[in-house]
Amino acid sequence: MKAEVAIVGNGVAGYACAARLARHGIRPLLIGPGLPVDRPPLTKQGLAAGAPVLLADEKRLDELGIDRLDAMVDEADLVSGRLVAGGAEFDAETIVLATGLSYRPPRIPGLEAAHVNATPRGMTRLVDALADGPKRVVVVGAGLIGTETAATLAVAGHDVTAIDLLDRPLDRLHEPLPALGAAALADAGARFVGGAELTEVAVEDAQATVSYTDGSLVADVVVAATGGRPFSPPGLGIDAAELPLLVGPDLRVPGHERVHAVGDLILAPHARFGPIRFPHWDMAIATGDRAADAIAGVDSELDRPPYWWTDIGPRTFAEVGWAEAAVEWGEEDGLHVGRDATGGPVAVLVVDDPRKLRAGRALLGA
Questions:
Q1: Which pLDDT value is given to residue 237?
Q2: Which among 16, 100, 257, 259 is least surrounded, fewest beta carbons within 10 Å?
């Protein structure tokens, strides 16, 4: 079988690329397990409701003009365009890699059995484990995924403790986000244990003991929210040491004329900030759109400011711009503004009032 464009991976970036190609009059083949699912709700609205949020169902995909294969790619020749997936073989004129992140927990004894709700299948499994009443839940990791998950479950009535090696929730992010994250967890009714080095998760009689350097926690359910890493299935022949991929302005993979890559798999070639790793929903869409434009021969540029948001219990935080370029932060007219070494604004954080994002974008010249 032949495919004009085969997209390997059906998450946010893969689906965005497929939808944009369809609008350009190109019928793509979207390859991935199940239907395309929106990732951010897996730790928030979807988790609270007990079901993943679809980006499109079968009917919508057909209306858009997107073919779908419910399978993983088993073999690929990125030079010739040959793909083997679900027992079928395809020759693709163009391949788009959109395989996203792997959320495998670190190698701590017993943690491999923990729930990982950053994937549709993992979230469904977690929902099943929580089904028969309030549970004692330990969430390992207090980055964005961990704090969102802990707050969502606490608001739902579970007894939740988040634990992290660092001293504060969101401690890998800039100020004032760690303090805001700690307050949001507390407002949601979740506890936090910081500075805790996990040593073991032992399960006996359906009860887990989560041990760390200074103590232990008892749980009915353990969730590993320890972050994601760019992932390429073995069949694609891409070495893990190459990830994230450095791509050209058209998101083409160097050395592979027919291959583009999008989403969390790449360093996004941003027009203002240069190659950046930005594993968030909006950049997934932006890179999917940019690759589709390049494939269709449409001129465009990856120049819209990076943007992310999070809902942690009752609190909402949203940020536009590239925070890593900021050397100092200050509050200006109700906005948390990050400025670079020249004093120019490069990022704006908005707390609990998304309407102020417009002012933030204006400040950045967007």
A1: 83
A2: 257
The confidence score (pLDDT) of residue 26 equals 98
pLDDT along the chain (366 residues), means of 10: 96 98 98 95 93 96 98 94 94 97 95 94 96 95 97 98 98 96 97 98 95 97 96 86 94 95 97 94 97 96 94 95 97 96 97 94 90
Query: Which residues does residue 69 pair with via DSSP β-bridges, in sequence order?
Result: 31
Per the omega criterion (within 30 degrees of 0), is the bond before 176 cis?
A: yes
Q: How far apart are CA 13 and CA 282, in angstroms?
A: 9
136-140 β-sheet, strand order: 191-193, 159-163, 136-140, 221-224
Phi, psi (rounded to 5 degrees) for 43: -105, 0
Tokens standing for 246? 């450095």
Vertex 137 angle, CA 133 and 139, to 5°: 145
End-to-end CA distance of the chain: 44
Work out the angle at residue 13's Cα, subtended by the Cα atoms of residues 12 and 17, and round it to the nearest 5 degrees: 115
**Residues 163/198, Cβ–Cβ less than 8 Å:** yes
Q: Tell me the DSSP string of 196-241.
A: --EEEEEEETTEEEEEETTEEEEESEEEE----EE---GGG---GG
Measured distance CA(252)–CA(169) in Å, rounded: 37
* pTM recorded for the entire structure: 0.95
**Which residues, 6+ apart, have CB-to-CB distance to 343 below 8 Å?**
none
The residues, ordered by sequence, that sit 6+ positions from 201 with a Cβ below 8 Å of its Cβ are 108, 109, 110, 111, 113, 114, 208, 209, 210, 211, 222
